[in-house]
Structure formats: structure tokens, C-alpha cells
What we know:
Largest sheet: 11 strands, mixed
Number of strands: 11
Strand content: 15-25%
Order of helices and strands: EHEEEHEHHEHEHEHEEE
Amino acid sequence: MSGGSSVIRRPAFEKSNVELVHGLWANFAGSKTASAYVDDSDDADLVNGHRPETPQSIPYTLWTSMEDDVLHIPSNMFHFRGLSEERSQYDITVKLFLLPQASFHSWRQNLQEAVAAVLDELEVESFDLLIVSFPGISFDTSSEESGGCGSNNVDASEQELLNFILDAWQEVGLLQSKGVVMKIGLAEFGCERLQKFLPRTAHRPAVDQINVRDCHVLPQSMMSFAKEEQIELLTHNDCTNILPQGTLRDILGDGEHGAGVLAGPNSKTKGLTGDVTPQWVVKYTAVIRDRGVIENKGYFASAELSNEAAR
Length: 311
């Protein structure tokens, strides 16, 4: 189940979860409206023999598509792909959010799916920077300021999480080795976590992206450590859990502002049944290098419905 790419032009300071949700709502509404003008030769999805007149009454089957047991929301026929200029004219940055509800064991597959979706959308063979945000990781400014980078303490749960991250990171390194990604990066890794991570991987991150919340100055210990390890520090305003399960249910449900893909207790149109579980969200940005202009920006989201895989 995938939210198709939405080109969103909003203020840079807006939080990514708000941007994503508004983008999905707008994209779904636009695709439903566009589906009303699609050729009427196939009567299977007509309502009482007529094309639906209101967006809320349009069956999801008219504006989505199924491929290899994957439901694409909306169908790819409702948007244009690619870039307007040569690939060499762009800096393309991709950030993947692996969500808390996804299984650790699915992370490598999630990485492959998300990267493939962006490459296909932009019709390119590579991008410049891939940043991966892992669930359960947060940057604690107060801890960094007080503890510095000297502690080697790590509890069992943290060690287990790090093992899963290192396993998924092998896939990131493979993408870099193949030339699909030029630079790779992490999100929310402080000094102590980096000290545990770096000696155990051959694929060193070039970037560490930190959410400093309301703090505009990174701790000195963090800046010194990053400089020593030749890691570029970037800041951001993204949410780690960018797409909570309840939010996705509301977006796809049959409520007043829902897309009508998922059936509800009082549904007037046919919809899918089952529990929907978000797996990952990927955000991409294509900037024209010599002008510093964002030409293409969007998101893809993936979820599983009950026992059947969907994206």
C-alpha cells in the first residue's frame, strides 16, 4: 500500500509529519477527482451504472492499482514522473524513516523498496545522499552536554538494537558500493552510539542528522567528535514517528476526510478490511544545483494490511 508521490511546496520550517499528512490528503483527493474523467468503458467499478459524482462516493478501485499483490495508492497514472533536466544538474537527497511498528527483520527489504520507489519516481539511477532514521533512536542534548563522549556503558536492549541497525546498514553500504547512493548518513546518533557503531562497520556515514528541537547549538563534545571522524552534522525538524498507525487509519478510512480505501463500520462504499500497519516513509528532494531551487519534493509511504503485504 503506497501513498503516491506528492509534490509539496510548503514552508521549510513545517514539520515533516504535517507536510506528509497534508500531502497524502491532497494527493488522494486529486486522484479521486481525476478518476471521474477516466474512460467509462469498464463498467465494473461504476456505482449503480453511473460514474460517481462526489469524491467521497468514488470507489478506491477507480483510482488505485494492484500489482503483484501490492496496492498502489493512488495509481501511477495520475501523476508525472521524472525530472525536467539532466540528472547531473541535481542534488538528490533521500531520507528513509523506518517506523516503530515494522519488524527489525524487515528493515533490509524496506530499504530496498523505498530506494526503488524513489529511483523509479525520479527516473534516475542514483542519488547523492541517503539518510536512514531508525526507530528507537533519539538524540539527547542534555546527555551529550553532561556526559560527553567518554562513556562506554550500553545496556542489553541498546546492544540488541545496535545489532539490528548494523545488519540493515549492510544494505545501505551495498547500495553505496553499487553506486546507487553517493553518500550515506544516519539520524540522531550521538557520540556514545557512534563510538559503538563506527568500529563495527566498513561503511562509514558521511552525515549525521540531528534533531536539536529548540536548541540551535549542538554540544561542543558532539561537534569535536564529528570533526575528528569527518562526519558532517546536519540539523532537521522531522518527526521520528512520522506516520502513526492511527493517523494512517484516518487518512485511508471512510471518515469525512478519509480516502475510503479502508472500510469502516458504517461504510457506504466497498473498502478493504483489516488492521493497517505503517512500515516506512521515504522523503526525497531534488534541488537544481546552480540555482538552489527545489524542483521536486515528495514522499512515499508503505504499510501492511492484516496478513497481506501492501505498499
